[in-house]
């Protein structure tokens, strides 16, 4: 979001002098009234950094663009109306926007500004009796992270036998790793494989222990290769005719994270 300075033009009213013989005091009052400026500038309400309300019927990114257009229109009219925000919720859908994928999934070392988890999933039933279930989820300041919400909303049946594959923008936090470990210990018929774009706070001891426990419970932890990013693009992104080429340092960053993950799980 960028702040913009509004420009205001002051229209001066022309005062028609009907009588040339007006006294000097009257002329001074007219001149003073015309040229006098306010002693204090009028301050516009500061723009709040809050994010726009999420619409369940709209796909990711559309509500933010609409809110930005509304704010822009208000500013052009010299007015600003703050946007009311509800609590953030888990967003689900079949495909995400190209912008969110390219920004959130980029496997940079320092993930500044990437404060949400995008989770693309595939659920294969035992024996391949049904078509695989595919979709994506995202969270931001939600009561449940996307990893936990997946088992609440997508796969709530604990007795279901299936193989689950995730492609996530970052590895689970310590709390989510502990919850996933418990789920895998309870659901013996569940197989989980997680492909991570980045490792979240991998230097923190609680993260290291959480990932080790998760792997010990049977979860396969992998880092996303360039071909995995291409697969996510082709399967989970609303790309239309746009093509995807992995960024320049994609392979290099993958090698970096693979080394870190090996150190954690050794």
TrEMBL record:
<dbReference type="GO" id="GO:0003723">
    <property type="term" value="F:RNA binding"/>
</dbReference>
<dbReference type="InterPro" id="IPR050610">
    <property type="entry name" value="APOBEC_Cyt_Deaminase"/>
</dbReference>
<comment type="similarity">
    <text>Belongs to the cytidine and deoxycytidylate deaminase family.</text>
</comment>
<feature type="domain" description="CMP/dCMP-type deaminase">
    <location>
        <begin position="96"/>
        <end position="214"/>
    </location>
</feature>
<dbReference type="InterPro" id="IPR002125">
    <property type="entry name" value="CMP_dCMP_dom"/>
</dbReference>
<protein>
    <submittedName>
        <fullName>C-&gt;U-editing enzyme APOBEC-2-like</fullName>
    </submittedName>
</protein>
<dbReference type="GO" id="GO:0005737">
    <property type="term" value="C:cytoplasm"/>
</dbReference>
<dbReference type="GO" id="GO:0046872">
    <property type="term" value="F:metal ion binding"/>
</dbReference>
<dbReference type="Pfam" id="PF18778">
    <property type="entry name" value="NAD1"/>
</dbReference>
<dbReference type="InterPro" id="IPR016193">
    <property type="entry name" value="Cytidine_deaminase-like"/>
</dbReference>
<feature type="compositionally biased region" description="Basic and acidic residues">
    <location>
        <begin position="15"/>
        <end position="62"/>
    </location>
</feature>
<dbReference type="GO" id="GO:0004126">
    <property type="term" value="F:cytidine deaminase activity"/>
</dbReference>
<dbReference type="GO" id="GO:0016554">
    <property type="term" value="P:cytidine to uridine editing"/>
</dbReference>
<keyword id="KW-0479">Metal-binding</keyword>
<dbReference type="GO" id="GO:0005634">
    <property type="term" value="C:nucleus"/>
</dbReference>
<feature type="region of interest" description="Disordered">
    <location>
        <begin position="1"/>
        <end position="80"/>
    </location>
</feature>
<keyword id="KW-0378">Hydrolase</keyword>
């Amino acid at each position: 979001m960028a702040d913009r300075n509004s420009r205001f033009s002051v229209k001066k009213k022309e005062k028609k002098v009907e009588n040339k013989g007006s006294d000097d005091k009257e002329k001074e009052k007219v001149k003073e009234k015309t040229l006098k400026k306010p002693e204090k500038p009028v301050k516009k309400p500061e723009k709040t950094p809050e994010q726009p309300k999420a619409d369940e019927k709209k796909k990711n990114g559309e509500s933010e663009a609409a809110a930005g257009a509304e704010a822009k229109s208000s500013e052009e009219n010299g007015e600003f109306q703050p946007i009311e925000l509800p609590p953030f919720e888990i967003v689900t859908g079949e495909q995400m926007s190209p912008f969110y994928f390219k920004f959130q999934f980029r496997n940079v070392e320092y993930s500044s500004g990437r404060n949400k988890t995008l989770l693309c999933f595939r659920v294969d039933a035992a024996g391949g009796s049904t078509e695989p279930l595919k979709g994506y989820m995202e969270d931001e300041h939600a009561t449940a992270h996307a990893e936990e919400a997946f088992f609440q909303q997508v796969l709530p049946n604990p007795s279901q036998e299936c193989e689950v594959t995730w492609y996530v923008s970052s590895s689970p936090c310590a709390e989510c790793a502990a919850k996933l470990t418990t789920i895998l210990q309870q659901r013996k018929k569940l197989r989980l494989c997680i492909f991570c774009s980045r490792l979240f706070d991998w230097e923190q001891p609680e993260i290291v222990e959480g990932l080790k426990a998760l792997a010990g419970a049977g979860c396969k932890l992998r880092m996303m290769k360039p071909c995995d990013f291409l697969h996510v693009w082709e399967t989970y992104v609303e790309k239309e005719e746009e093509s995807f080429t992995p960024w320049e340092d994609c392979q290099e960053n993958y090698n970096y994270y693979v080394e870190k993950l090996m150190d954690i799980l050794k």
